[in-house]
Amino acid sequence: MNKNSLDGKIKRIAKLGRYTKPEKVEGAIKLDSNENFALDREFIAGVTAEAARQVDVREYPLDQLEQLYAQLAKYAGVNEKCVAAGSGSDQVIELLLSTFGSKRATVFTPTFSYFINRCELHGIRVDQVPLKRDFDLDNKAFLKSAKKSDLVYICSPNNPTGNQLGRHTVIDLINSLEDRLVLIDEAYVDFADYSLSKDVTKMDNVIVLRTLSKAFGLAGARVGYMVANEKFIRVFRSTIQSPYPISTLSLAIASGILERADHVKNTIETIRKERARVAGRLAKIDGLQVFKSDANFLFIEAGKKYQPISKALVSNGIIVKMLGNVAGHKGCIRVTIGTKEMNDKFLQCVEGTM
Predict the structure, then answer these.
(1) Bridge partners of 73?
(2) Does domain 23-40+262-351 have CATH number 3.40.50.720?
């Protein structure tokens, strides 16, 4: 590659959209990144400390990955030969894009911007089909675009809107796209009503992406996984994925938390109840619209109250995702469902702007 060619590529990449990490604010109530603070910090610290005592990080992880596959498969309700893991589901997405390539991808919008950014990085043209005003899918428009693409991405429950598409809607789409690679991003599915994990093990062209970053409280450990048919997973594990994609310590932590999956499930139920409570309180405020959520966050249209709410939250040290105008909705906010105490402080700030 000559210098001019390299410079040209660097200039192209520099102009692309990118994920911007949130700033760390000491002492703030952090409700902007959909992390699971309802899982007690001491509980997570205990699992982490136990994992650290068990492993020798001087060694490469040899059999720990196989153990994790078995645990993930049990949790997802699939055969362990249908599971592969990575350093966060982001890394799995990256590998799929770089390995299988694509000329054109179809997504609906608004959705997880990271996927769009990575497609653009790999020179994949992205056709963005707007969701309906209630954030339901425009089936006809989406299918029309998807049939022109070789890659289709469906985030469900969707980030940032929070809603999960109807099961039959997604299945019907998949059945109409048998010769396209379909990625179903289920990062938030633990908080929703159904998963397609079991279904896709019988399909040739569909991959479900899942993670331990959200419901399992391991955002910092970077452990994600995918579910697909046995043939695809075999090739992914043996050839596509790196030999040691997850650190020895993260593998041990992930195994430890999965051994305590029942405790995590109880916390998920608590979050679901808090989600309903917070949404109910917000719905009583004139000028706010709260959208149905199947995730661990709420999407709110604040309209004229956007700036007063923003100022109130900042003055009280509460950080949420201030999205601004999104898909025709004015003054949008995404707020993570945290502990009851965190949620109450958020509600008090918002209600105080009435």
Answers:
(1) none
(2) no
